[in-house]
Amino acid sequence: MKATGIVRRIDDLGRVVIPKEIRRTMRIREGDPLEIYTEKDGEVIFKKYSPMGELNEFASQMCETLCKATGCRTAIADRDSIISVCGAPKRELIDKLVSPEIERIMEGRQVYQHKDGERGRALVDGVDKYFISVAAPIISGGDVMGCVIFFSEDGSAVGEVEYKLAQTVAGFLGKQMED
What we know:
Oligomer: single chain
Order of helices and strands: HEEHEEHHEEEH
Number of strands: 7
Number of helices: 5
């Protein structure tokens, strides 16, 4: 655990303000759920809660199935990082922060499809090795939960089948999270 040197008081309603700088660096947005942990020595720890983390095993199986069926590299992300990948080395991508491009696609709530001749959009933040071919936001209960992604090393476009598959799987995962 790393000390920040910031001290905050609890107000009369039991609230604590998390400083803007920490929210920005930890990618904590308004409305994001935080899980609270306590330690015997008096520590209280806030950790970002990812509902997609509950589906981690299922997401891995889904990625493998998509990859085998299409021959394309696939990934599933929560709102912040890649949680599952198939067709590329896991150590290069698992738990890496998604790129600002993926964040914008998720916030836009529309399926993105790369077009030939278009500049490639990075998959993960700070790494220009993998590029998005198709990205479909996962929406559950009106909230964006993550994204289903087909990607490649050259950012090449994929066909209508991959587009529809990403869209269908994103819808399916969204429904699974509602149940």
